[in-house]
Design goal:
Layout (H helix, E strand, L loop, with lengths): L2 H4 L6 E2 L2 E3 L2 E3 L6 E6 L4 E7 L3 H19 L3 H30 L3 H18 L2 H4 L4 E6 L2 E9 L2 E5 L7 H12 L4 E4 L6 H12 L7 E3 L4 H9 L3 E7 L2 H13 L3 E5 L5 E4 L5 H13 L11 E5 L3 H13 L20 H16 L3 E4 L18 E4 L6 H4 L6 E7 L2 H9 L3 E2 L1 E5 L3 H10 L4 E4 L15 E2 L2 E2 L6 H7 L1 E9 L15
Parallel strand pairs: 1-5, 8-9, 8-11, 9-10, 11-12, 13-14, 13-19, 14-17, 16-17, 19-20
Antiparallel strand pairs: 2-3, 4-5, 6-7, 7-23, 12-22, 15-16, 18-21
Helix pairs in contact: 2-8, 3-4, 3-7, 4-6, 10-11
Length: 507
């Protein structure tokens, strides 16, 4: 397959589905635009597939299930080994495609590809990780054993912010466990998903095991209610995560739905302030703040407040914002769409009206060679009260709020009042303070002097509260448990006196 012909936009490319190992044009009359956010211009057209088209994709995946289920797990893993090699070989070009459709800097895009590769490497170990248990003679003449069985058609519904990495959180594990997979990527960034489909095919994955369908709520609902779909994985905002989970469960499916976040980063007076500022800036403004592990609320404790805000504001002012679709020295790119930019601007206006102080205003940023791009510079609010909207809501952009408290106790209470529970971080040199925070902070992923406490592939992504709906988290051993059904077999074989020469006797 030619990547240029299939994926990279030339003019106003129409994005295709990937069904049964083939790129297929959708017949849907409803379409959306894919933008290059660096310049604010459309580069492709994506179909909003119909329920009938979704039905066809799911049935194609289901048809591939028996043969893939019965393929030895070591053979499935070998596909993933080949995929790792292809991802390594094509990492730079994949990163450029991500930057084109999303707006990440090249360094950020490369980093996301690297994290995706780690997930595929983890999937390569599934032959060992899905070994069952046995116990001989658990009772008289009775043996017990367990096996991990695949479920059937599994679905991934993925967000715009990591268009290549998040599908790799899901598909490699699901497929190496023996399940066919249907991906519904964000309609804002479908090009990376199509490149992934090409690479799976090039790695030797049988037709129908990996499929891609595009669309909006119609396509999503068709997947959530389809009788052949067994499990649904989702990453996105909390309201949609709740809807995905409830709808999936109502229709008898497993579901892991990862929602939004408002990650708190506590800074103690004894912290290494330069390191805390560097980590907080990277956490809050990396990927233009468009990630669910972004440190979007800094909690300055006592005497840490003034130097933290002063150093943060000065450091943020030096960040260069610019185009990421071409080679440049930009340290931060645009946000994904004009609609998203307008929402962020509205939230900044609301923060000012509610009384938060703008320590750094990024609204005036200009990129001279891309006046139509979707740019917002690093923005910092100070003196943010807990009841303010900018303190409570996930803004999902380069907007950092700073709240001031007097004690660690107040800071932990503030963190735990959040309806979200993805990440929470403390910067301190005090071991007792770190231990208190580690055991009492109400988030699923805790960082101590680590700005973004996101797990590597072998550990689960353990959001809680409004950040996760379900029982088994994405990634790690929990991800394997989610995509398999463990079965237990008890066996008893009695000596058969009528079996002639095959009679079993003791002795």
């Amino acid at each position: 397959m030619s990547v240029t012909a299939s994926v990279v936009p030339t003019g106003r490319t129409s994005v295709r589905m990937f069904v049964g190992g083939e790129f297929v044009e959708s017949t849907s009359a409803r379409r959306g635009q894919v933008y290059n956010p660096s310049i604010g211009e459309p580069i492709a057209e994506v179909p909003f597939c119909t329920a009938a088209e979704v039905d066809g994709v799911v049935k194609a995946a289901h048809a591939a299930f028996p043969a893939w289920r019965d393929t030895p797990v070591v053979e499935r893993a070998r596909v993933m080994f080949r995929l790792v090699a292809l991802l390594e070989k094509n990492a730079e070009s994949i990163a450029r495609l991500i930057s084109l459709e999303h707006g990440k800097t090249h360094e950020e895009s490369v980093g996301s590809v690297r994290r995706g590769i780690e997930m595929v490497e983890f999937a390569c170990g599934i032959p060992t990780l899905t070994m069952g248990d046995t116990l001989h003679n658990i009772a008289v003449d009775v043996d017990c054993e367990t096996y991990f069985h695949p479920l059937g058609v599994c679905v991934g519904i993925t967000p715009f912010n990591f268009p290549f990495m998040v599908p790799l959180w899901m598909a490699p594990i699901a497929m190496t466990c023996g399940n066919p997979f249907v991906l519904k990527p964000s309609e804002k960034v479908p090009l990376s998903a199509m490149r992934l489909a090409e690479l799976f095919a090039e790695a030797g994955l049988p037709a129908g095991v990996f499929n891609v369908v595009h669309g909006d709520k119609e396509a999503v609902d068709a997947l959530l209610t389809h009788p052949l779909v067994q499990a649904v994985s989702f990453v996105g905002s909390t309201p949609i995560a709740r809807y995905i989970y409830e709808t999936s469960v109502q229709h008898g499916k497993r579901c892991q739905a990862n929602g939004g976040a408002k990650n708190h980063i506590l800074v103690m007076p004894d912290a290494d302030m330069d390191k805390a500022v560097g980590a907080l800036q990277a956490s809050a403004f990396g990927c233009s703040g468009q990630r669910c592990m972004a440190g979007s609320l800094a909690v300055a404790i006592g005497a840490a407040a003034d130097p933290l805000v002063e150093k943060l504001s000065a450091s943020a002012a030096r960040l260069k914002v610019g185009r990421t679709d071409v080679k440049s020295d930009a340290q931060m790119g645009p946000v994904v769409t004009r609609q998203h930019l307008e929402g962020l601007l509205s939230n900044i206006d609301r923060g000012v009206k509610e009384g938060a102080k703008l320590a750094r205003d990024g609204r005036a940023v200009k990129v001279s060679d891309a006046p139509g791009g979707f740019y917002l510079g690093p923005t910092i609010f100070d003196h943010v009260a807990p009841e303010m909207h900018v303190s409570q809501a996930e803004l999902f952009g380069p907007v950092l709020s700073v709240s001031r408290v007097s004690t660690l106790e107040e800071a932990i209470e503030l963190t735990n009042r959040s309806p979200f529970g993805n990440g929470a971080v403390i910067y301190t040199r005090d071991g007792h303070a770190a231990r208190e925070f580690k055991h009492r902070a109400g988030a699923g992923m805790i960082g101590i002097n680590v700005g973004v406490p996101a797990p590597m592939a072998m550990f689960p992504f353990t959001g809680v509260k409004g950040s996760f709906f379900g029982d088994l988290h994405i990634q790690g051993k929990e991800g394997i448990a989610f995509y398999t059904q463990q079965r237990m077999i008890l066996s008893r074989w009695h000596p058969d006196s009528h079996a002639g020469e095959f009679v079993t006797t003791r002795g």
